[in-house]
Design goal:
This protein is α+β, with helices and mostly antiparallel strands. It contains 9 helices and 4 strands; from the N terminus they run βαβαααααααββα. The protein has a 4-stranded mixed sheet.
Length: about 210
């Protein structure tokens, strides 16, 4: 039985990353003979910790040079895609921009308890489903508690700099490897699948890679 190592580079603030992971799960469900090992890696869409938070629609409008109505329509389309995948994006238009460095630190900590995916999904749900500030220590600690991690330990980590160097190394490694947009799926340190591809297309790519590795 073939095992594929999937390194998933993503950001909590990236809706396509949440969609991409859900589509990956659908793709893998159609490939029951394929074994996979998934590891999450950090990427920051908003790397400036000191940047003021602002409503997402005008921020995206300025970033992409499109009107707020265009961005609202694009976000509404993502909300429908997410709903079809069983994801809660109900408040994605009410969210604010935020830095996710501390959230990535918690994901790295959660990984030491085999809860990285649960932590990532809780953060996606908090940000897109509830428009919560996932740079806020109290909200992050609550997300940790929600997935069965120790809230007091999460608060201690957030108050210090545990896992900071690991996150910085992670970000630098994939930037240097040429990853400039997310999600990015790196298979067996050799193959790159970019973007949140449709499940059937993703499954076909994974099957082709598995065949080549067999």
């Amino acid at each position: 039985m073939t095992t594929l190592k999937i390194d998933l580079v993503s950001d909590i603030a990236c809706p396509w990353c949440a969609i991409g992971y859900a589509r990956l799960q659908q793709a893998l469900s159609s490939l029951p003979e394929l074994q996979t090992e998934l590891e999450w890696h950090a990427f920051e869409l908003n790397p400036d910790k000191n940047a003021p938070q602002e409503p997402i629609l005008p921020a995206l409008s300025r970033k992409y040079g499109r009107s707020e109505d265009e961005m609202r329509a694009a976000q509404a389309n993502m909300m429908q895609i997410a709903a079809d995948l069983g994801l809660n994006f109900s408040k994605m238009q009410q969210r604010f921009t935020c830095n996710t460095f501390d959230a990535h630190r918690l994901v790295k900590w959660a990984a030491t308890h085999d809860k990285a995916t649960a932590m990532k999904l809780a953060l996606f749900a908090a940000y897109f489903g509830e428009a919560k500030d996932v740079s806020d220590a109290a909200i992050l600690a609550n997300c940790a508690e929600q997935v069965g991690l120790d809230k007091t330990e999460a608060q201690r980590i957030l108050a210090g700099d545990d896992f900071s160097s690991i996150v910085k190394e992670d970000i630098a490694k994939y930037q240097q490897a040429g990853i400039s947009s997310v999600p990015a799926f790196i298979i067996n340190n050799r193959y790159l699948i970019s973007g949140a591809q449709e499940p059937a297309q993703l499954a076909a790519s994974l099957q082709q890679i598995a065949n080549e590795m067999a």
